[in-house]
Each structure stands twice: as structure tokens, then as C-alpha cells.
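hey m, so remember when u said the C-alpha cells were messed up on ur end? i reran from scratch. heres the input so u can diff it against urs
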Amino acid sequence: MIPQAVLFAAAHGWGTKWGFIGLLVFGGVCGWLTIRTGGLEAAVALHALSNLPAVGVAAAVVDGLSSDETAADSPWQLALVDVATTLIYAALVLWLARRHHPQRLSPPVSGPA
């Protein structure tokens, strides 16, 4: 999970220290949700819900979509809000998964024999 979180954050650029840490947490949570729920759906939904407001705000600002800034360029305040909402989403998804027991179509992968 840690290597994929680092790769996810690096794919968005290096930016600020806080933006990179926020992306590390986001990538780690997406990996953890994928493992815990047995599918990519929760992680994909989190990514879409995270990008939707950012693109909406950028589209509302004149020439906002021409900017090359990413979440990696976030100041500490925005990174803190992003980490908090990511963790709240993860808690909600895990709570729902415990209540509804998502169906797994294949058995979990076991470690090397």
C-alpha cells in the first residue's frame, strides 16, 4: 500500500510538502479501501468526488482551467481539509462495508506459500 501511495502522490507532482503529504494520505486511503472492500469502486468514487469540486471551482474562475497546478501544490490549510474529508469518507465507507458485507467475486489473495 505504501509504494502505490508514493507513486500516486508522485504522479501529481512534487509541489508543496503539505500537498504531497495530502496526496500520500489520499493514495494510502484509496489502497486501503480497495483491500478492505474487495474492489476499486470506493477508491474510484473518492477520486471522482475529490476532483469534481476542484474542476468546478477552476472552471468558474476566468482562465482557471488553463492552470497547471495540481493537488500537490496545495497550501497546508487545503491539504488539511483534504486529509480530513478523505478520512471521513473512508470511515463512512468502512462503516457501510461492515453493515452490508460487500460480495467478493474472488477469494482474497493469500501470501506466498
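this time it looks ok to me. The chain is about 65% helix and 0% strand. if urs says something different then somethings off w ur setup not the seq
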